[in-house]
Amino acid sequence: MVQINRGNNAPPPPPVQRIPLIAGNWKMNKTVDESLALIDEMLDDLNAYEEVETVICPPFIALFPAMELIEDTEVKLGAQNMYFKDNGAFTGEISPLMLREVCDYVILGHSERRGYFHETNEDINLKVKAALKYDLTPIIAVGENLAQREAGLTEEIIGLQVEIALREVNSYDASGIVIAYEPLWAIGTGRAASGEVANDVCKFIRQTVARLYDQSVGDRVRIQYGGSVTPDNISEFMSQSDIDGALVGGASLKAGDFVKIVARTQECLAKKK
Ligand code: PEP
């Protein structure tokens, strides 16, 4: 085996380039026809921004026709949730085995799933492992509520969410996942976190991943900010050191706004270089 002796004067290895990821979470909005019309309206524009990875997460029933519409483009599809079993008597659920035929990503642990549907950190861990088994990339959503932030518990809550979500996930898989920091007080409220506040938590998430694995995994994992992201504030987030993209709710339902968010993300990338 060839040993590379870097010596004291050897240049440091180049920094890891994390491709920015903008994902649109449409939630329970848009019929199939409306979904296809919205994708059609923005597809060419989204496809033109080659340095940003763009993911659209429409409702389940729109995924299959959406897949046909986006083929031959760089735009990707994600699901908003899934169950952790492959198949069986689980009425109303959708499995990773089904999703992998139609999409590349799956959002897991969104605060609406945690809140309205009582999903626990342990449930999310089962889903993360099931998604990875079928080569779906999980976008794991984590975040604190206002009372937790005011009580100084942000890092404790988010550290635990990240640690449990990644239990029994190997370092290779962990490097490829996406974590979305979504403070509950910023989701759908029009009151986004400041770039600095969001970056502090994203940096903490990266350090947590590095502690659980090693620095190279921490450097590779992509961390998004989510919570009232708009074309007007995306640049503030994308100019931060540890924010690699955004999970966008409301603004992803307007073609013009979503395209602008992707465009401004690419502009920020050019400025960072
Ligand atoms: C979300 O639901 O993931 C989200 C961030 O929503 P909004 O952008 O509307 O705050």
Describe the protein.
Helix 5 runs parallel beside helix 7. By secondary structure, this protein is of the alpha/beta class. The chain has twelve helices and eight strands. The protein has helices spanning 32-48, 60-70, 96-99, 111-116, 121-133, 146-150, 154-165, 171-176, 195-212, 215-220, 234-238, 255-272, and strands at 21-25, 53-57, 76-79, 105-108, 137-142, 178-181, 222-226, 245-248. Strand 3 (76-79), helix 3 (96-99) and strand 4 form a beta-alpha-beta unit. It has one domain (22-272): Aldolase class I (TIM Barrel, Alpha-Beta Barrel), CATH 3.20.20.70. The chain starts with 20 loop residues before the first strand and ends with a helix. Phosphoenolpyruvate binds next to strand 8.
Structural descriptors:
273 residues; alpha/beta; 8 strands; globular; binds phosphoenolpyruvate
CATH architecture: Alpha-Beta Barrel
> What small molecules does this complex bind?
phosphoenolpyruvate
Kindly report the CATH topology.
Answer: TIM Barrel
Helix-strand category: alpha/beta
